[in-house]
Amino acid sequence: MDSAFRPLAGCRIVSLALNIPGPGALADCRALGARCHKVEPPSGDLVQRVAPALYAALHRGVKVRTLDLKDAACQRALHRSLATADVLITAFRPQALARMGLDWAALRKRHPQLWQVAIQGSADPAHVDDAGHDLTYQAAHGLLTPGHLPTTLLADMAGAQAVVLAVLQAALGRTQGVGPRRLVVGLGDVAERMAAPLRWGLTAPGALLGGGHAGYQVLRARDGWVALAALEPHFGARLAALAGLGACPDWGHPATRDAVAAWAAAHEVAALARLAQAHDLPLVVCPLVGGGRTA
Fold this sequence. Notes:
Number of helices: 14
Structural class: alpha/beta
Strand order of the largest sheet: 3-2-1-4-5-6
Mean pLDDT: 95
Distance between the termini: 36 Å
Oligomer: single chain
Shape: elongated
């Protein structure tokens, strides 16, 4: 982000959100100029234990404080912080917030200046207290290959961006004289939004971006795999010339797909990468998770 552009300068955020979406959003809000404070329970944040480098990256410049919100003195300390805050980010289910006296009605009464961004599994009142995690949100919307775990935390990472958008809404609302509101980011809803290309038929098996276009494939080379995305006509023309497909190949025909696959299989990944660089072709070598190349 441009460090000179700080649209959230002067905005004070207190976050109770653990794991990925809340801290991910807080990191971006801090980069946009907000003063960010995070409250953690005595047990800490799980991410700090399982992925300390990620935790450090997400909390750089964030003031972290440990408070046991089951303790009355710690609750008073939290409310002192909220008295001067502009936005509170939470990631508890509503029933848990109510038990802590942090439901929206209680917050509005005690801190009338405060906006809330509530991270939940769903914005649907019928499902706000349903248990869930990134894995289940992705699975519910067809974003998983059965039998395989996802390679990224799609709902969590996209959810973090949705939280940033909500904080920006709150900041803009304040400048426009809008009264504080409770804004909900449903991670399941975010996953549903991310799955829209599948629902629209773009990435379904055999569809344009699901194997139906011969120039849009993940291809086996001699010593690894490459991803090719020659969709636009000018990219297709370059691929056709390199692969010997003729002037006007039928990109939807199985024979064209087989010809492109044979072309890739005849080269090592390094050679394909050099060809792509020389001919301005959208092709990259597929890395292994953790580094290296696919075998």
